[in-house]
Amino acid sequence: MDIDNRAEDLASDLGADKEEVKGDLENLLEYSVPIEEAVQSLRRKYGDGSGGGGSGPSTKSVGEITTEDSSVNVTGVVLTAGERSIRYQGEDHVIVEGELADEDGKIDFTAWEDFGLSAGDVITAGNAGVREWDGDPELNLGESTSVSFLDETPTIPYEVGGEADLTSLQTGDRAKTLEVAILESEERTIDGRDGETTILSGVLGDESGRLPFTNWDPVPEITEGESVRIENAYVREFRGVPEVNISEFSRVTALEAPVDVGSAAPRMAIGEAVATGGVYDLEVVGNLLAVRDGSGLIQRCPECNRVIQKGQCRTHGSVDGIDDLRVKAILDDGTGAVTVVLDEALTEAVYGGDVEDAKEEARDAMDQEAVADTIRERIVGVEYRVRGHLSVDEYGANLDASTFEASDDDPVERAREFLERRGAVGTTEVES
Q1: CA atoms within 13 A on the CB side of 61
Q2: What whole-number distance in Å separates Cα of residue 222 and Cα of residue 199?
Q3: What is the pLDDT of residues 8-57, one digit of tens each?
């Protein structure tokens, strides 16, 4: 795609400056907006008779801004503002991301120019572009945007500064401040945008829960067993769950007092958990309805560890498989269902034997599926309490279990708690 030609054609159609149109087009493409959607957005912005007109941006409160707007004038308080480096067309570019709020709502923003924004500033942004990001409107502050700082201090129903705990974080959050313990930390070498680079990855914890992290510019404070304050962290999705990202623009300082980390995972209904799109560490309770195909005694590719069928790996072709044990089972609690995946150790526990025992059973029965049948007889129909990592994608919801135990919960008590939280019935009704 030739951006120069596309921008020139679009500028000619709209009667606008080519360089300005090109800059706006590049900004939208940088954020993965499809080219046709980007073009239509710019047509609305510059006004070609298909919407928006050429009367200039309207003045709106934050809560009034929608994805149908092309540009707006808006006044609000900067809740968070943090720098991050991105690469576009081979060049590094520093942007500022954060949230802007007024009494009517809050909205994410990206500043492509250095406006000197800091948390707590009260600003009016004139001719701020609006784009859709993950279904919601987002402000783009660019060359055509004017930013003025105000002395007033409006009352807003939001905290300034970005302080958060781990379970409150969502994919797309920016400029967050965390106080956490480093539960796990491992140095890895990856192929980065500048070639081989060393990063740190691991797990963070606080009283609310746990999340994975990546430190792209390793600092000595990120050491397993230490507690730190991290300022200007951002969150993106990794393997279906939120991941904390610590960049060269993040500030990491050691804490004198250790951060307490809760030992229990948050308990969630399956339907509620699946609706979040992914949770790194949680506990669910439900009835095990079925053991899926591909459970029991399986073989894995020695190269990529994928499950193989009849000695064939989808990536590496014909291979000598490595024997392993696995369970993929359907767990349902009435609010939703999830596929629970048990690794070799957990499968051995429910099977009552190891790989060698499974191979012997399969030989005696002359059927590898005999192992899965044995597991089905032992676990189907039983209520289990499962802790693990939930990921949700186009193929469904999967919970990689770290613990898998028969539930000792009182179902009447759990039903009472469930219904009382929703104000559906009283105690007498539950007991009856």
Answers
A1: 8
A2: 11
A3: 777 777 777 778 888 888 877 776 666 766 776 777 666 554 444 445 68
Q: Where are the alpha helices (DSSP H) in 335-393?
A: 344-351, 355-365, 369-379
For the chain, what is the largest distance between any 2 Cα atoms, rounded to a whole number of angstroms? 82
Gap between the Cα atoms of 228 and 271, Å rounded: 34
CA separation for the pair 25, 156 (Å, rounded) = 34
Q: What is the mean pLDDT of residues 281-306?
A: 96
Question: Would you list the domain boundaries of the chain?
Answer: 1-55, 58-161, 166-254, 270-415
Q: Do domains 166-254 and 270-415 have the same CATH topology?
A: yes
Q: What is the per-residue pLDDT for 54?
A: 47
Percent of the chain with pLDDT strictly greater than 90: 67
Residue 418, pLDDT score: 60
What are the DSSP E strand ranges found in 193-277?
195-206, 209-215, 227-238, 241-246, 251-254
Please state, in angstroms and rounded to a whole number, the distance separating the CA atoms of residues 384 and 406. 4
Is there a contact between 22 and 4 (Cβ–Cβ < 8 Å)?
yes
* pLDDT score at 300: 96
**Angle between helices 18-30 and 35-46 in degrees, nearest 10:** 140
Distance, in Å, from the CA atom of 63 to the CA atom of 281, rounded to the nearest integer, reads 33
According to DSSP, the β-strands at 383-393 and 227-238 are unpaired
pTM (2 d.p.) = 0.71
Q: What angle do CA 381, 385, 386 make, to 5 degrees?
A: 110
Residue 108, pLDDT above cutoff 60: yes
What HEC string does 144-176 produce? CCEEEECCCCCCCCCCCCCECCHHHCCCCCCCE
Among 286, 290, 328, 291, which residue's Cα sits nearest to residue 307?
328
Q: Which of 285, 283, 240, 306 is nearest to 402 (CA)?
A: 283
**Superfamily for the 270-415 domain:** Nucleic acid-binding proteins (2.40.50.140)
Mean pLDDT for all residues in the chain: 89
Q: Is the dihedral of CA 135, 141, 145, 149 positive or negative?
A: positive
User: Mean of the pLDDT values across residues 363-386?
Assistant: 97
Q: Cβ(43)–Cβ(50) under 8 Å?
A: yes
58-161: CATH superfamily: Nucleic acid-binding proteins (2.40.50.140)
Both tokens assigned to 325: 């044990």
- The alpha carbon of 314 is separated from its chain's Cα centroid by a whole number of angstroms, namely 28
Q: Would you say domain 166-254 falls under CATH 2.40.50.140?
A: yes
